[in-house]
Amino acid sequence: MTSAERNPGADPDALLDLARDAAHAAADLIHLRRPESLEVHTKSTSTDHVTQMDLLSEDLIRSRIASARPDDAVLGEEHGGSIDPTRVTWVIDPIDGTTNYLYDHPGYAVSIAACAGGSTLAGVVADPTHGRTYFATAGGGAWCEYSPGPDRVKAPPRRLALGEPPPLAGMLVATGFGYDPRRRALQGRVVAELLPRIRDIRRMGAAALDLCSVAAGRVDAYYEAGLSIWDLAAGQLVAAEAGAAVEALEGGPPRPGSVLVTHPLRISELRDLLTDCGVSHSIEPETT
Predict the structure, then answer these.
(1) DSSP secondary structure string for all residues of 112-134
(2) Is 173 helix (H, G, I), strand (E, B) or coil?
(3) 149: helix, coil or strand?
């Protein structure tokens, strides 16, 4: 029995329509109505920021969801919440890549996922600076819609599917770094060991877009330790529906503290290489 069958209110296509509507509205808000001066506050460390636009974006998304589906649960990066196993839960990152947003640097996104029964049923990642919206439903494939400008004149959505992977030495690999200085140092050592053994590294600063970049073929792989569930929920569905293997760095199902995404033919050897480079020292232990 599927998650949608266990929860008759969890139709993936209907959830996707709502997620896309909310993501487009939030993306327009943060991109087109960005103020001249941002109010910036710190969270976990001096480099972990939140702006008033993060808060406004999450407020807008929550409002859209509450209006359409008032009985659903919501978990957002800024206002909290929890996953309710008995209801549809919306997992929201109102601005993934806040540091990029703070510097007005391309590479931030709105990420919204609808989850039920322990799985993600629908996910949307809206990238306003590049005019791209990535979306997927469980079993329905992964897609990218290109819609530059606020009028959203767009081409038909393009289905995403991984092509033949390059050999390990020719792979372009994306990663990211945590906010804690000790973890950042460990992650930097892994990159120093990895870099001479692959094509190159990309550090774009938004996990949701990294996951979608694997789906779209803009990078060949992505790995990171120390993420949160809102960083992953939508993007990992897009990557998986495009044909990527999405696992934990140590093997097994992906989890917020540990994710490795690449073509199924390369995931074992890439995991072995990352292990040889010392990635295990940067992985958060799994919590129960």
Answers:
(1) EEEEETTEEEEEEEEETTTTEEE
(2) strand
(3) coil
135 near 15, Cβ under 8 Å? Answer: no
Do 260 and 248 meet the contact criterion of CB atoms below 8 Å apart?
A: yes
Q: Give the whole-angstrom CA distance, residue 199 versus residue 163.
A: 17
pLDDT digits (tens, 9 = 90+) for 261-281: 999 999 999 999 999 999 988
**Inter-axis angle of helices 267-276 and 181-194, nearest 10:** 110
Rounded to 10°, the helix 207-216/229-241 angle is 10
Task: Give the number of residues written for the chain.
Answer: 288
Encoded amino acid at 83, one letter: I
> Which pLDDT value is given to residue 5?
47
Identify the residue whose tokens are 């073509």. Answer: 263
Q: Report the DSSP pairing between strands 200-202 and 172-175.
A: parallel
Could you give the CA distance from residue 230 to residue 128 in angstroms, rounded to a whole number? 18
Calpha distance 69→64 (Å, rounded): 8
pTM across the whole model = 0.92
- The token pair at 265 is 């033919």
The answer to whether 229 and 151 have CB atoms below 8 angstroms apart is no
Give the residues of the chain that fall short of pLDDT 50.
Answer: 1, 3-6, 288
Question: Which helix or strand (DSSP H or E) is residue 245 part of?
Answer: strand 245-247
- Three-state secondary structure call for residue 65: helix
Which pLDDT does position 1 carry in this prediction?
Answer: 44
Side chain identity, residue 132: R
Q: What are phi and psi of 35, to 5 degrees?
A: -75, 160
Contact at 8 Å (CB) between 97 and 107? yes
CA distance 224 to 190: 11
Domains and CATH numbers, the chain: 3-160 (3.30.540.10), 168-282 (3.40.190.80)
Residue 190: its H or E element:
helix 181-194
Contact 166, 265 (CB under 8 A): no
